[in-house]
Amino acid sequence: MEEIVPVFTLFNGKLGFTEGIIVQWAIIILFFIFSKIFVRNLKENPDKRQSVLEIIVEYINNLVKDNMGEKRKGFAPFIGALAAFILLMNLSGMVGIAPPTRDLSITLSLGAVVFIVIQAYTIKEHGIKEYFVGYTKPVAVILPINIMERIMLPISLSLRLFGNIAAATIIIELIYDSLGNIGWIAQIGIPIPFHFYFDIFDGAIQMLIFIMLTMINIKIIAEH
Fold first, then answer.
1. In this prediction, what percent of the chain has a pLDDT beyond 90?
2. Can you give the pTM of this predicted structure?
3. Helix, strand, or coil here: 17?
4. For 125-180, how does the pLDDT look when each residue is reduced to its tens digit (9 = 90+)?
5. Does residue 135 form part of some domain?
6. CA dihedral of 9, 11, 12, 14, whole degrees rounded to 10
7. What's the CA gap between 200 and 187, in Å, rounded?
8. In the chain, which residues have pLDDT < 70?
9. Are 191 and 176 in contact (CB under 8 A)?
10. Range of the domain at 206
11. Within the chain, where are the H helices?
């Protein structure tokens, strides 16, 4: 896989914007626009569009309640937005755009967001004093282990997502390169099953793993 380089830079090259960052912005903008469109004119008797939206929202709400408990159902919008964002980035390969999640800096930023949310929620639940006391439980001697565990969570989430998507991207590129040696016409239909597996199936699975581990860790750490 080729080196990821900035598409353009600012401040004499000190601030670079890669293709992945630009695709992220495009996804955020499109997600915002379609959200505004889809939630307009909601009706008491829903039409087909609204019914589909309500099914998705209900599924996310139930997923959060089943894994985090009724007390934390307020996390449903965060988990739903995170899931949609990661899934759309993973699926961008279907339209010929390299998935942003093949860039480690982007998956690390996602892990950092999860880390901040977990720590902020735990402090909100227990207070700043009890938050730091929690690092010494069950015994003070394991303080370094608890600190390392907190730090490794966002890193492991990031590396898992990055590794799987980057590997899938490399495989797809190798498939196209190999078929290109046969002839351009071989690149038209043969790669379709591979796209279904590596872009759709693997992309959805990696998104699901990311949000499931996020929910589980929010619940576990908040109950420390």
1. 33
2. 0.86
3. strand
4. 888 988 888 888 878 888 888 888 888 888 999 999 999 999 988 888 888 888 87
5. yes
6. -70
7. 19
8. 1-16, 183-187, 224
9. yes
10. 6-222
11. 19-38, 48-68, 76-91, 104-133, 143-182, 186-189, 192-195, 202-222
